Amino acid sequence: MKTLRAAMIGAVLAVSGAAGTAYAHHSFAAEFDRNKPIKIEGTVVKFEWVNPHSWIHIKMANGQTWRVEGGAPSALLRRGWNRNSLPAGTKIIVNAFRARDGDTRASAAEISFPDGRIVPYERKNPRKLPGLRGFLFW
Fold first, then answer.
1. Which of 7, 10, 27, 60 is deepest in the core (most CB within 10 A)?
2. What is the DSSP-derived secondary structure letter of residue 83?
3. For residue 63, is it left (φ>0), alpha (ψ between -120 and 50) or beta?
4. 129 CA to centre of own chain
């Protein structure tokens, strides 16, 4: 009986810990508005290769700096990215979705380079969305 009780307590603690982690990760819809696509064109200031999401800081010609959220480093690695893929000074165009709170943040779908390459930056299962050329990945 003591073994069953200990196992039950262990299971409850394990589930409680997992629930906290799942709760801490935000949903796309809570932070970003897929009805507000945006094209951000500028120069990479900084590329943060951090968990749970990578971030690109982009300075636009008008002086505004945008922070663009993307996939986790582990997911990006599987798609051919690495921490040196976007060095400071790289010119890019990002198709993304604006933050709901109006901040200069967005969630990226794809990145275009001056040489014509277009690469996915977010989640891996493509779904066509109106208003964006290409795909949103999630």
1. 60
2. T
3. left
4. 17
Q: Which of 66, 89, 70, 88 is nearest to 79 (CA)?
A: 70
- CB atoms < 10 A from the CB of 58, how many? 28
Answer whether 123's CB lies under 8 Å from 55's CB: no
Dihedral angle computed from the Cα positions of residues 14, 17, 19 and 25, in that order, rounded to the nearest 10 degrees: -140
**What class is the 29-137 domain?**
mainly beta
Structural contact between residues 137 and 126, judged by C-beta atoms closer than 8 angstroms: yes
The rounded average pLDDT for each run of 10 residues, N- to C-terminus, in the chain (138 residues) is 60 48 58 91 97 95 96 87 93 95 92 90 49 40
Each domain of the chain, given as residue ranges in start order, spans: 29-137
Q: The whole model's pTM is what? A: 0.70
